[in-house]
Amino acid sequence: MMNRTLTCSPTQTQNVYQIEISDSIFNQSHSLCHFLKGLAPHFAIVTDTGVAPLYGNRLQELLIQFGLTSYLFAFPDGEASKTRHTKECLEDQLLDKKMGRDTCIIALGGGVVTDLAGYLASTYCRGVSLVMIPTTLLGMVDASIGGKNGVNTPHGKNLIGSTYQPKKVWIDPSFLKTLPKEHIKNGVVEMIKHGLIADSLYFELLEKGVADIEVLNNDFLEKVIFDSCSIKSGIVARDPFEKGERHLLNFGHTIGHALEKLSFYALSHGEAVAIGMMVEGYIAVDRGDLKPEVLERIFKVLKSYQLPMKLPRLFTPEEMLQAMIYDKKSMKGLPRFVILKDIGQSGVFDGNFCTSVDERSIINAVNRMNHDLCCH
Ligand SMILES: NC(=O)c1ccc[n+]([C@@H]2O[C@H](COP(=O)([O-])OP(=O)(O)OC[C@H]3O[C@@H](n4cnc5c(N)ncnc54)[C@H](O)[C@@H]3O)[C@@H](O)[C@H]2O)c1
């Protein structure tokens, strides 16, 4: 077992921090607590009701044993909690405990927790220290990296939030032993996305790694989590404020977010983005940018990780276009898409790394999605 460390330094921001990947945080409690002690005297561990009994109480006990004041705040688990209301409840709970500017918020959980707690940290007392300890694969390879956080509204996902970098991200793959398999798949989708937009060798590794992920081979997990974090943090460092290259990280999400919203979250984030990558691939094929056989290869790898690749119902092009209005890449109410050119290679489009496409091409892609992926 080895510790792997990445240093992240988003340009134009003052914040340089480390992502540390090491097995069993609880066996390295001394270095964890020592680091935390240097940040603040008071700790608010923010987690959800799924993670609190597994790891939250244990982390709180550890901090208390080390002489650090800590409180545990757990909100009901699930995407439905990622709201302004939950953030407000947490703020009131922290204020009731008289937690002030010298508080450090520890986000312990999946992407819902890290998004919510990150947003909370960025505004609580006008900004307090933040440490991320992701416990899902998606949290490890994606949500905890890059400083983006936020909450959902009835108008769409992640519409309210901020960009706020943590002081450190601790990644412990052993947390994945208790994570249900369907949530492992959500993380794998984002890892496949990282290979598709930036690194064909990494994609090949994932093509060959189905069995390693299935048995949670620790060495393999450490390697692929590290590679995914490197790809994402590299993109974020070059484009911290999402002006260009960072749009690549949105591949599959323009369609994916619309599907999540229109299915009332019956499709998980990973399932929706997996389908979204295929549909955005149809658009690239339609434009003549991507070879159909490359798209076949992408479909094959997604299926090999047992992603269902099935729609819960048919979606009309009109409702899909309507649902994409609030996509953050939209301009003048029209969606823009990342255009894949090959495995590991995407269109640059004058440094925007996404482009608007003919409405007909979107309609064709949605119709093809309904034809190829509908459950009936
Ligand atoms: N900020 C970003 O850059 C970014 C990137 C990707 C996704 N996201 C966001 O991440 C969210 C999805 O995150 P997620 O997929 O991690 O889901 P999640 O946070 O809802 O966690 C899934 C479930 O797993 C449980 N859980 C977490 N860790 C566990 C463990 N180790 N063992 C057992 N159960 C555990 C949780 O209690 C929850 O019920 C979405 O809201 C998405 O928008 C953000």
Topology:
Layout: E1 4-8, E2 17-21, H1 29-37, E3 42-48, H2 52-65, E4 69-75, H3 84-96, E5 103-109, H4 111-123, E6 129-134, H5 137-143, E7 151-153, E8 156-160, E9 168-171, H6 181-198, H7 200-208, H8 210-214, H9 218-238, H10 253-262, H11 269-286, H12 292-304, H13 317-323, E10 336-337, E11 340-342, E12 345-346, E13 355-356, H14 359-373
Parallel strand pairs: 2-9, 3-4, 3-5, 5-6, 6-9
Antiparallel strand pairs: 1-2, 7-8, 10-13, 11-12
Helix pairs in contact: 3-4, 4-5, 5-6, 5-9, 6-7, 6-9, 6-11, 10-11, 10-13, 11-12, 11-14, 13-14
The protein binds nicotinamide-adenine-dinucleotide (NAD).
The site of nicotinamide-adenine-dinucleotide (NAD) has 31 residues, from helix 4, helix 5, strand 8 and helix 6.
Describe this structure in words.
A hairpin with a 2-residue loop joins strand 11 and strand 12. Helix 5 packs parallel to helix 9, helix 6 runs parallel beside helix 11 and helix 10 packs across helix 13. The strands form four sheets. Strands 1-2-9-6-5-3-4 form a seven-stranded mixed sheet, sandwiched between helices. With 376 residues, it is α/β, with parallel strands linked by helices. Bound molecules: nicotinamide-adenine-dinucleotide. The site of nicotinamide-adenine-dinucleotide has 31 residues, from helix 4, helix 5, strand 8 and helix 6.
Cross-sheet strand order for the largest sheet: 1-2-9-6-5-3-4
Tertiary shape: globular
Proportion of residues in β-strands: 15-25%
Low-confidence parts: none
Radius of gyration: 20 Å
Secondary structure tally, helices:
14
Rounded average pLDDT? 94
- N-to-C span: 47 Å
- Care to count the β-strands? 13
Helical amount = 40-55%
Q: What characterizes the major β-sheet?
A: 7 strands, mixed
Distinct ligands, ions and cofactors found in the model: nicotinamide-adenine-dinucleotide
Structural class: alpha/beta
The topology string of helices and strands comes to EEHEHEHEHEHEEEHHHHHHHHEEEEH
